[in-house]
Design brief:
About 20% of the residues lie in helices and about 40% in strands. It is of the alpha+beta class and about 160 residues long. The chain has a six-stranded antiparallel sheet. A hairpin with a 3-residue loop joins strand 4 and strand 5. Helix 1 packs antiparallel against helix 3 (about 55-75). The radius of gyration is 16 Å and the shape is globular. The model is unreliable at about 150-163 (pLDDT under 50).
């Protein structure tokens, strides 16, 4: 952990959310960050539900993975970054409700690897219900420039670069 301010840490973690076009497409929002932890959320829109009306497993996994990664980034020093090496997720029950909230925390931050976890909750009628738990191992690497965000396109045929 470092002596950086809460605002500095938030900006550093936000830097891995903002250029991730897929997260923007899903509507993922970084809500809070602290030393070795972060919280995210997204509205559970019809486009993010599977055929039975529940939150799609891919949406839940993406939210859980990036939240665990945000917690890991909040635990490493400035100038360092993290990248998922391995993850395991357990789906505990179907995701129903208006939105999903994920809370990630770092279990151990080493010089070369970080182990973190996240839990995903479905929010319905002011109640939260745990729907998934993820465990993640991340590698620590030197920070590097991020890729430029890709314009958000609804369908591949909207992209003039796709044949």
């Amino acid at each position: 952990m470092t002596d950086e301010t809460d605002d500095e840490r938030f900006r550093r973690v936000a830097a891995i959310f903002e250029p991730a076009a897929f997260l923007q497409t899903l509507g993922v929002r970084l809500d809070a960050v602290g030393p070795g932890w972060c919280e995210t959320s997204l509205p559970l829109t019809p486009a993010l539900r599977q055929q039975h009306g529940f939150a799609h497993a891919g949406v839940i996994t993406t939210l859980a993975d990036h939240t665990a990664g945000g917690a890991a980034r909040a635990a490493v020093p400035p100038g360092r970054d993290v990248l998922t090496l391995e993850l395991k997720i357990n789906f505990l029950r179907p995701g129903r409700g208006e939105r999903l909230v994920a809370r990630g925390r770092t279990l151990r931050a080493g010089r070369n690897t970080v182990v973190s976890e996240s839990e995903v909750f479905a929010m319905a009628d002011g109640q939260e219900l745990l729907i998934a738990k993820l465990s993640s191992t991340l590698t620590v690497l030197d920070e590097r420039p991020f890729a430029s965000p890709v314009p958000n396109r609804a369908r591949p045929d909207d992209d003039p670069n796709v044949a």
